Amino acid sequence: MNHSERLAAFVALGQRLAACPPDELTALAARARNQNAWFDGPSVAAAVAGVAHLLAPGALARWAARYPPEPTAARQVGVVMAGNIPLVGFHDALCVLLSGHILLAKLSASDAVLMQWALDELVRIEPRFAGFIQLVPRLNAADAFIATGSDNTARYFEFYFGKKPHLIRRNRTGVAVLTGRETDAELAQLGPDIFQYYGLGCRNVSKLFVPEGYDFVPLLDALQVCQGVLNHHKYQNNYDYNKSILLVNAVPHFDNGFLLVTEQPALVSPISVLHFGAYAHEIDLVDQLTDVAPRLQCVLSAAGRWAGSVPFGHAQQPGVADYADGVDTMEFLAELL
User: Fold this and answer.
1) 28-36 long-range contacts, Cβ below 8 Å, gap at least 24?
2) Where are the alpha helices (DSSP H) in 22-181?
3) Which of helix, strand or coil describes residue 147?
4) What is the pLDDT of residue 337?
5) Measured between alpha carbons, how far is 116 from 267 in angstroms, rounded to an integer?
6) How far apart are CA 128 and CA 54, in angstroms?
7) For residue 157, what pLDDT is reported?
């Protein structure tokens, strides 16, 4: 296959996913949820739509045109895929295959159903991809590695993969900047950034930066549209547990019945909890965001008014060029010799 044929196959896959019938998505979600209880129908549908968005023909072609169409030599690239949210490993598979390399995929036990389904659909569209995709339990045969995990597993990956070309990602999260001037409609748009995938994604908002003396009532009221998260028993269990911990320890917090908001220095918060930190003025906010920049996947603000931020409501809609950890995966693959 040449580059144009590979690109055409991914475009066709995007069209296939965008037109996936509701009954097929329902059946797929049932299989995925048997493997991972967090992967319910809305989450699976959102993930499939997200992959279709990545594969939009115009944006995909413009992105692909920035890189060499063929590799110097096709290498076996081992990918350790995450499984925190549905189809989170797809972008790495796209990069490896579109760049002309061979994918050795170690699927996450939490997301094997969906990733195998997506790759099977790609092979169904373009059978020649079968020779470029291997699902493997171990990556011993790989010439290079891409791995995504926690800060702890990243040290493990560095030890085992360090002698070959590697791209290793660590913990990242999303934060939101609030000024107190947001409208109720803008605050409501923040809901999906917090609650989609139940807050398990690295792009989910886990901490707010708010001005000193911020009034949380309008935000908590605006987020009431998201109270359906309590319908998931695992989310409900997390909310009940974390609420009890805050109450037993007498930790000051806000509570709207399904979300707990408390002032904490940590960026990453437990499921059902949102941390916040206060800033005195804009320069103070710049300093705080600069200090934590290496641990951020994205920063959000209303209408994207904060420089370099993503508008509320778009955290889980990354473009194909929005690389995890800000490291250009395609550039890494293009430089393999």
Assistant:
1) 28/113, 28/114, 28/117, 31/113, 32/86, 32/111, 32/113, 32/114, 34/113, 35/109, 35/110, 35/111, 35/112, 35/113, 36/83, 36/110, 36/111
2) 22-35, 41-54, 57-64, 90-98, 112-125, 151-161
3) strand
4) 76
5) 33
6) 22
7) 87
**61 Cβ contact list (under 8 Å, min separation 6):** 7, 11
Burial class (CB in 10 A: 0-12, 13-18, 19+), 277: middle
Q: Are 77 and 102 within 8 A, CB to CB?
A: yes
Measured between alpha carbons, how far is residue 8 from residues 14, 56, 91, 103, 330 in Å? 10, 11, 16, 18, 18
Identify whether the C-beta of residue 25 lies closer than 8 Å to the C-beta of residue 91: no
> Look-up: residue for tokens 């040290």?
155
Q: Is the pLDDT of residue 158 over 90?
A: no
Structural domains of the chain sorted by starting position, each given as residue range(s) with its CATH number in brackets: 3-170 (3.40.605.10), 173-311 (3.40.309.10)
pTM above 0.90, yes or no: yes
CA distance 186 to 55: 28
Q: Could you tell me the strand order of the sheet in which 205-211 lies? A: 254-255, 260-263, 273-279, 205-211, 173-177, 296-301, 310-311
Euclidean distance between the first and final Cα of the chain, in Å? 20
Asked if 59 and 13 touch (Cβ cutoff 8 Å), the reply is no
Q: Which residue has the tokens 């002698």?
A: 163
Q: What per-residue confidence (pLDDT) applies to 162?
A: 84
Summarised one tens digit per residue, pLDDT across range 238-259 is 999 999 999 999 999 999 999 9
Contact, 222 vs 187, CB < 8 A? yes
